[in-house]
UniProtKB/TrEMBL annotation:
InterPro entries: Helicase_ATP-bd (IPR014001), Helicase_C-like (IPR001650), P-loop_NTPase (IPR027417), SNF2-like_sf (IPR038718), SNF2/RAD54-like_C (IPR049730), SNF2_N (IPR000330). This is Superfamily II DNA/RNA helicase, SNF2 family. It comes from uncultured Microbacterium sp. Gene3D superfamilies: P-loop containing nucleotide triphosphate hydrolases (3.40.50.300), Tandem AAA-ATPase domain (3.40.50.10810). Residues 1-21 are annotated as: Disordered. PROSITE patterns: HELICASE_ATP_BIND_1, HELICASE_CTER. Residues 524-686 form the Helicase ATP-binding domain. Residues 815-980 form the Helicase C-terminal domain. PANTHER family: SNF2/RAD54 HELICASE FAMILY.
Amino acid sequence: MDAARPTPGEPAASWRSLLPSPPAEPVESLALGVELRQRETSAEAHWAPRRIQAVTPRRFARDPHDLLVGLRPLMRGAGGWIKGDVTWESLRRSGRGRRWGAAQVRWFTELHALARDDRILGGFTDTSEWLTLDTIEASLLWVHLGAAAALGIPVVPTRKDLDVALARGADVDVVLTREDEGLRLAPRVEIDGAPADAPTVRPVARSGLYAVAPDGARLRVTLAPVPLSETARAVLLSPGPIIVPAQEVDDFVRDAYPALSRHLTPAPELDLPAPPHTTLVAAVAFRPGDTIEYTFRWERAGAGSGAYDPPADDTESAAADALERAWADSVPLPFAPAATLRGIDAAEFGARALPLLESLEGVRVVVTGTRRSYRELTDDPRITVSTVESTDPDWFDLGIIVEIGGRRVPFTPLFTALALRRKKILLSDGRYFSLAHPALDRLRELIDEAAGFDEWEAGPRISRYQTALWSDFEDLADISAPAVSWREAASALRNVDRVEQAPLPTGLRAELRPYQRDGFDRLAFLWQHRLGGILADDMGLGKTLQVLALLAHARETGERRPFLVVAPTSVLSVWREEAARFTPGLRVRVVDSTSATRGTPLAVATAGADIIVTSYTLLRLDEAEFTAPEWALVILDEAQFVKNPRTRAYRAAAGLHADVTLAVTGTPLENSLAELWTLLSLTSPGLFASARRFREEYVKPIEQGKVPENVEGGPYRARRIERLRHRIRPFVLRRTKELVASELPPRQEQELRIELSSAHRAVYDTVLQRERQKVLGLLEDLDRNRFIVFRSLTLLRMLALAPSLVDAGNIRSSKLDALLERLDEVVAEGHRALVFSQFTSYLSLVSAALDAHGIRHVSLDGSTRDRAGTVEEFRAGDAPVFLISLKAGGFGLTLTEADYVFLLDPWWNPAAEAQAIDRTHRIGQHRPVNVYRLIADGTIEEKVLALQERKSRLFHAVLDDDEMLSRALTAEDIRDLFED
């Protein structure tokens, strides 16, 4: 929790608190005082401690040696800059109680911090007042001094006979010349390009210098940054030139000159031998486990070893540049002066870098450890794939053999490298090769499609449902060798569009329409090969009849084990009635109570039955009883009930043991492709072995694509959809009414825009503004705030229907008035109507209004006890209007007696709306069907319609046509709902 957040009731801070507080009064300025100082001589001290004192021009002329530069802060006085009472200590305490500017105080305290570790202990007696510039080692000193002017801090002398200047830079050479018969080493100094008198120049540690020059009756001190070598520093500190006597010249040239040569500038007349070359040494150590350690260093004649970086002179710089250019041209590794390399990087170094180093002039390679030979393979890979029968009938062991240059590559390290997206692979014998080959790229994609890296516990394998994937493996391989049973299933599924007709069961009492006969043949084909699938025909096309025909076929071809049908509670009686009508020879037993309620085990209660029908609720409650038997075939009717893999109903369905599982649903996906994966994981386990991989390969690229090629109509997205359709085609049978039931009467759909009354509009707009402000602030974390967000959306949807539903006043519902007007006409003309809403509270208002108008009606919602009796009452014709809640009547009903449908509120899911309409527009309907969607103008209902349009493409892109997919309901969708 943010500790700075105010507690409830505490006033929030003003934005003015962000502004700096104005000073109570004008701040005073500071300056950096510079003083040229000198130790007393021993004679002057008279055996007392040698004091430090200021240097005057006269004293400097008498003794220009043993100088120091002192620094201290100064403050403004009446006559200029004075010592006053400002000290380093007072500034270090942040200037408490003073009126100096904060930025200037900070500058002085930072300067003090740079110098505090380098002060000369015992050098000054007043160390609290002065810093000694000469001993400040920090290279940042000069940057810091350069920043003083911008802060209004002048650098000034502490004495009137002294001038101080800051130069931009300096150059220092140590010149070696002839001195009589010996040699002379003296400094040559330039400051800002102008010569300086070397005897008056002193070093500032190793980062700069200062020069002292008399100027009449004054002294001038110039400070300048310049890196100093130890040689230059020693020469500058010398009281005078350094002389090499004639008798020692040979010793100097032999012992000192090679080490000092890079820091000296010999005079042209000197005939000195060329110094030995610096050698670049590459120390390479071979370690166990394909590990190589290497280090570059300089071997400098007379000076021992030195670090590779930075080079000490132009010769070393040129050698380093040549090495790094050659490395960049030949070695596929980034250059580094030292590194520890493992695996493929070590192999690249051993195969490419080490031979290069050994070939370069001026580089000496020192190898330690047992040198290993590495070699890169560059031939094209040759791939062989095979399947072998396994103990699991749904899976085959998958063999993949890759050969490169006659060398067989073990699959496990290859698989690991491909799965981890590595660029190269190292074999145990030191050979390695690149994985950037088209055949290996395709192999990686196929492995990804077949299973996730952490899910092949016993080695690679492929599901018997992945026949399309096997075809891709065969296309990739130079040789393929499938198992016998695999070959039979794969060959059959490749010709899935030309399934041979199966004999119709003699016990079927129905004449199948052409598309129903085709559906039966496809189901019989899957049963023959013991493969599951999804029957996803439109509502009203007779999916139940096709499944019953399959069950009769399985029984007549010798299957003796029972079949299990799991369906919503409201549909259980439909299966019993349909089976009695179309397959009277099959004995049906409906299990509609738990074993505890029945008092008998499931096996006893269903003994002798061919088909056991139960509900998803009972499957969940009596999971152990239903997962114990071996079922011949499991039918999951209205399978969208198990579309969420996190529910107990899904887990119970997944635990059923059966040769074949079929999902029957007109809406195999409603909101997201993940729902399709869930159903296929029950019916075709292994077709997509991993939910995680399915999300990565399909859901994210198709539904949540954020790169340009993923936009709707983009080529990458199109390829993903085509790949998905190719995988699922043998296992999903989908026919629309428009394609196969042309004899159905036409269906007219119309939107009725309802203008809200002024009072209704005022209430809606007020609540909308309040909820919009609340919801838009919660969308950054939609998962956490989903309940609150959807409660606000539901509130607005109910308010669009009637203010009284949310206690927003006893204002009449504009939509209800429009509905009553339409129903008056429909009933007067002898028609019959279905009226749907998601909100049972609104249906209660409609029911009361119909009673007041004298229009007879019946109602069906979750509280209805006699569902069958209510439906029969409407079919009998006594009541021309049927009020139905979506949850209770969206499926499992055939109501072809009605020819009008009124949808009172649009729903998030267009598939649910389609199911409601299909209660009457289905096989058996002979009159045109008129559908009216009542939409409250200028409300959230208009936004829901737009969302419906996007969601409908999700279904059609995969199952009906080649349109692109839309996204699931996201934070952006919800944001759109609240836009003006």
